[in-house]
């Protein structure tokens, strides 16, 4: 049987040592034993987020944390700024609208990063904005945003700074506290190397003031409930025990290496993958490419979905396609979490083989050679 290489930007491969942890017998969550694990996980997450503030763990996919970051600080009728340069930026706007919150959209072309001065302009014109909602890595376009530079602007205002780091955390640089982020939202199935099912929110002091004033309806994702339970290193509802145990192992792995070293490894893989594609004569979709994921333009006359299908059925390599207007135009390869050198090389081999099969002309082996030169 062909070995399978999961190269999608979520879920990502779960390393064996983490899968083994999660196969152990279940324990009860209202116990000292579990609370010790949960404390370690919470402390481990703070290291990766680079925050000394609160980090809460929810049982949901990443979108649950996105919703929490809206309903806990906003009230119906509030205004928020949303950077819309792809599917996930758009999602913040959809959530806000569902709760009667007005969205001031900064629409940017897919594949480009927002210009911080544009956000400054919007905030000057709208001093009553409740929050600026944006994304570290916009996964749908494989684009990293300058979260630090935007933070310099937002921190000088009364607006909160909310960043979706679901795919970027652990692959692109991120410093929650130093960059003035008030709420960062994350999920488990991307850079954190565990299956889908957990979501996280960091919450700053500035954000807590807004939590007190917020009038949006909420029950399950109420930050105050999580804060109260955290006093006893506990969760208000049944914890996703097995996933948290897996996460403890994953965080051990990341923090033992050091998150900056992990980011450097993924940066190298991402660069190797991009250089490989260029060596094959292909181009990169994003103007500001992320380390977490790469979007590659299919060559003229070849459908990106045909490349994806051939890689999957014949070589066991699973890439993601483009969404909406990008469907059939790009394929996306992740470099985050458990994706390693072997995945990177094998996936490049599959792209070469698929392209050859689809009649595209290039110098065989040049992609793998370019990547190997960078990764060693
Ligand atoms: C994957 C992803 C999400 C959505 O997460 P779900 O776990 O599918 O709810 C949101 N934002 C970004 C940037 C993502 O990459």
What is the number of independent domains? 2
- As residue ranges, the low-confidence spans are none
Identify the CATH homologous superfamily of the largest domain.
Type I PLP-dependent aspartate aminotransferase-like (Major domain)
The total beta strand count reads 15
CATH class of the largest domain: Alpha Beta
**Global Rg:** 21 Å
**What strand order characterises the main sheet?**
2-10-9-8-5-3-4
N-to-C span: 28 Å
Query: Largest sheet, if any?
Result: 7 strands, mixed
**Structural class determined from secondary elements:** alpha/beta
According to CATH, the fold-level topology of the largest domain is Aspartate Aminotransferase, domain 2
Q: Please identify, by name, the CATH architecture of the largest domain.
A: 3-Layer(aba) Sandwich
Bound molecules: pyridoxal-5'-phosphate
Please provide the ordered H/E string of secondary-structure elements: EHHEHEHEHEEEHEEEHHHHEEHEEEHH
Walk me through what this model shows.
The chain is of the alpha/beta class and 376 residues long. It has 2 domains: 16-257, 3-Layer(aba) Sandwich (Aspartate Aminotransferase, domain 2); 259-375, Aspartate Aminotransferase, domain 1 (Alpha-Beta Complex). Helix content is 42%, strand content 16%. It has 13 helices and 15 strands. It has helices at residues 16-22, 32-49, 62-71, 87-98, 116-125, 147-154, 205-213, 223-230, 241-257, 259-279, 304-315, 341-357, 366-375, and strands spanning 5-6, 54-59, 79-84, 102-107, 131-135, 137-138, 143-144, 160-164, 183-187, 198-203, 283-284, 293-297, 317-318, 320-321, 330-334. Strands 2-10-9-8-5-3-4 form a 7-stranded mixed β-sheet, sandwiched between helices. A hairpin with an 8-residue loop joins strand 14 and strand 15. Helix 3 packs across helix 4 and helix 10 (259-279) runs antiparallel to helix 13 (366-375). Bound molecules: pyridoxal-5'-phosphate. The site of pyridoxal-5'-phosphate (PLP) has 13 residues, from helix 3.
